[in-house]
Amino acid sequence: MTGPARMGTDATVGLHVEALLTSDCAAVYVAGELDLDTAEQLVQTVRTCLTHRPNVVRVDVSELAFCDWYGLKTLLSLHREAQGAGCALKLSGAVRPQLARLLAAAGTGHLLTATGAQPTGTARTTGTARRRHCVAAPLAAPGPGPGVPSARPATAPEPAMA
């Protein structure tokens, strides 16, 4: 059995997107700014994850410094796309105040906010804590296609603590 596959994108353009795929879950970590100029990175990563038909895609937004209306539109579009593929897309991690206000103003927080996602501006998660969102048998990522993030091996997730 191979280890979980991580996919990442170039962080030099304002947004860093990385995914950890397991047999029934995809954990997508975003850091930086989600807006018109950077949203396509998230779209491509989530679409790649959806090809593996996970039960849930968790988008960890704890390191998302900024999200504008276009970023929110992208998240909602990906939510609908995931539903169409038979899975859920939920935000996880600490939701920063700016994103929490945007979700509240749009009345869309109930669609995206997962159980355990907390509105706060101070909490940061570590790589170990992040991997606890998806604990399952590992799944290998597909080979990269045009415009799709490359796959690289990662360490296996640690078991969740009770």
Index terms:
alpha/beta; six-stranded mixed β-sheet; two-stranded parallel ribbon; 5 helices; globular
| Helical/strand content category | alpha/beta
User: End-to-end distance, in Å?
Assistant: 26 Å
Describe the sheet with the most strands: 6 strands, mixed
Rg over CA atoms, rounded to whole Å, is 14 Å
The amount of beta strand, in percent, is: 25-35%
Mean pLDDT, to the nearest integer, reads 74
* Topology as a string of helices (H) and strands (E): EEEHEHEEHHEHE
Word description of this protein:
This protein is α/β, with parallel strands linked by helices and 162 residues long. It is built from five helices and eight strands. It has a six-stranded mixed β-sheet. Strands 6-7 form a two-stranded parallel sheet. Strand 1 and strand 2 form a beta hairpin. Helix 1 runs parallel beside helix 2 (69-84). It is globular, with a radius of gyration of 14 Å. The two termini are 26 Å apart.
Topology:
Elements: E1 5-8, E2 15-21, E3 25-34, H1 39-50, E4 56-67, H2 69-84, E5 88-92, E6 94-95, H3 97-106, H4 109-112, E7 118-119, H5 127-131, E8 150-153
Parallel strand pairs: 3-4, 4-5, 6-7
Antiparallel strand pairs: 1-2, 1-8, 2-3
Helix pairs in contact: 1-2
